[in-house]
Amino acid sequence: SAELLDASSAGAATRRISDEVGVWRQRAQAPADSAERRLARRILDQVFIETYETALYVNERRRDYPMMIANLEVRRLVSPQNSNALLELARAFALGKRKKEALNTLRQAVSNGFNDCARIKQAEWKSLREEPDFQEIVKRMNCSVEGS
Asked: Is 145 helix (H, G, I), strand (E, B) or coil?
């Protein structure tokens, strides 16, 4: 995921990682049970967990938000519809002061079922609370962030 940090190689690295994850996802979704399907599922599960733990327990603690984002981008590639994966990526964007990406990814998380109002009241979202897009997302969730 370090290649994702370098602007000159980020696009190629994303495509390469996406292609590799796509191959494993295709194998994991095979209709018939096989050793290859089980292996693919274990690999994807491990990548999903490892990138999450590294992002939250190493990168975030070091305030290395670019690397946190890179790890969570890989996690999103593994499970693009997972609302929690999207929420954590949106949160990383917010911590890294990348408002547009934070709002777009938060919107995707809500579209994929995220609706935990308590988590949207956490301090990480403070910089976005005055943004009209953030207020629209919160309204769509039927939440209130007043007093938080």
From this structure: coil
What one-character-per-residue DSSP string does 31-74 give? SS--HHHHHHHHHHHHHHHHHHHHIIIIITTTT-HHHHHHHHHH
Rounded distance between C-alpha atoms, residue 28 and residue 34, angstroms: 10
Provide the mean pLDDT of the chain: 90
CA neighbours closer than 13 Å in the CB half-sphere of residue 141: 25
For residue 122, give the DSSP letter.
S
First and final CA of the chain: distance in angstroms?
34
Give 92-128 pLDDT, tens digit per residue.
999 999 999 999 999 999 999 999 999 998 998 999 9
Neighbours of 88 (CB within 10 A): 25
- Identify whether the C-beta of residue 83 lies closer than 8 Å to the C-beta of residue 113: yes
Alpha-carbon span 19 to 28, nearest angstrom: 14
In 3D, which of 51, 67, 94 has the Cα closest to residue 2? 67
**What is the C-alpha separation between 117 and 53, in angstroms, rounded?**
23
Residue 23 token pair: 């191959």
d(CA 148, CA 144): 9
